[in-house]
Amino acid sequence: MNRAFSRKKDKTWMHTPEALSKHYIPYNAKFLGSTEVEQPKGTEVVRDAVRKLKFARHIKKSEGQKIPKVELQISIYGVKILEPKTKEVQHNCQLHRISFCADDKTDKRIFTFICKDPESNRHLCYVFDSEKCAEEITLTIGQAFNLAYRKFLESGGKDVETRKQIAGLQKRSSSSSGGRIQDLETENVELKNKVQDLENQLRITQVSASPASSVSPQSPSTDIFDMVPFSPTSHPPAVPTPNGTQPPPVPGRAAEIKRDLFGAEPFDPFSCAAGDFPPDIQSKLDEMQRQRWRGSKWD
């Protein structure tokens, strides 16, 4: 029953190697569906899956639903399941993920294969119905396995290893880019929060500073008689005249010249030097100074 893995060496294959390695072999069949299985291979495993999907097909047929038709494209890279008219790929089962392939000896129309789903890592059994080509399709998948294995041996394992490396790099690249985007989004949220905090602090500062800036300058304090105390360095406020003009500025006291009652400048001998006196007065003062010195000498 296991046509893919127990092919006899004395029998020839149905297709040329170039047809499977450079192109693909198309087949039309009815797709009964797929179901999860517990084991990656085994005759009893696929038999239970076929029984389950056949029962589901009878229920759908009784409800008036038809079994969908699909196109299978088989090559050394895997088995593609397409919609026949639109050529839309419904399932892409890579060859290295297919672990078992068989046709049903009790029902010549049925063939199956088990493939591991790359996203969920579950083993799924795909069941098809082909009136005339069930065994041929199974042999074609077996030939694709044989050619892929020979290519692996000829390349010394480099071809498969390169594919694994590329797949790993793509996986790491997608995960790292996804993590980087998440980091950027987190950083963006943090920056928004910081900007919001700064705006709130600035708003609080403006509100607290506005009452102080709006207060008018304080007027000078007055005494009990509502009079401004005198300060030598302060100037009296200018009182406007009745016609609204400002009076001329009053000169400071330091600029005023002190004079006596008759308008003459008072004489201060202590603030004058000897050369400041007139000649006659200076000579009399000198004579008085000499006489005083003589008297004090004789005494």
Short note summarizing the structure:
Helices cover 41% and strands 17% of the residues. By secondary structure, the protein is an alpha+beta fold.
Structure explained in plain terms:
The chain is α+β, with helices and mostly antiparallel strands. Helices cover 41% and strands 17% of the residues. It is built from five helices and seven strands. It has helices spanning 17-21, 43-62, 134-154, 158-214, 279-298; strands at residues 25-37, 69-75, 78-82, 89-94, 98-103, 110-116, 123-129. The chain has a seven-stranded antiparallel sheet with strand order 4-3-2-1-7-6-5, sandwiched between helices. A hairpin with a 6-residue loop joins strand 5 (98-103) and strand 6 (110-116). The chain is rod-shaped. The termini are far apart.
- Percent range of helical residues: 40-55%
The helix/strand series, from N terminus to C terminus, equals HEHEEEEEEHHH
Looking at how many chains there are and whether they match, the oligomeric state comes to single chain
Rough shape? rod-shaped
Main-sheet strand order equals 4-3-2-1-7-6-5
Low-confidence segments: 1-10, 172-180, 212-216
Radius of gyration: 58 Å
Question: Terminal Cα separation, in Å?
Answer: 164 Å
Number of helices: 5
